[in-house]
Amino acid sequence: MQRVCFLLKVRQERLAEYRERHAAVWPEMLQALSDTGWRNYSLFLREDGLLVGYLETEDFAAARAAMEATEVNARWQAEMAPFFEALDGTRPDEAMTPLTEVFHLA
Prior knowledge:
22% strand; globular; 4 helices; Alpha-Beta Plaits; alpha+beta
């Protein structure tokens, strides 16, 4: 199982709405994540907008590709893109660059 952690930056003026959107993620989006191998997926948001994402999956590249192939993900990413800083035209899911794990207590 791969453990994946990534960072993104939510715009300060959109923090409240970002939280609201994630309190009511579309059921079809939740199902797509589950169906494509995203497990134990969490998002943590700091008050300055730093977003830390964590998930576990058998194969992150395959899980990302499977999500990218879903119609619901395209709609979700289009709606979420304006919430983030410094994407430079990249979709939020494409900007999820995994951090290097340097320690894990099993």
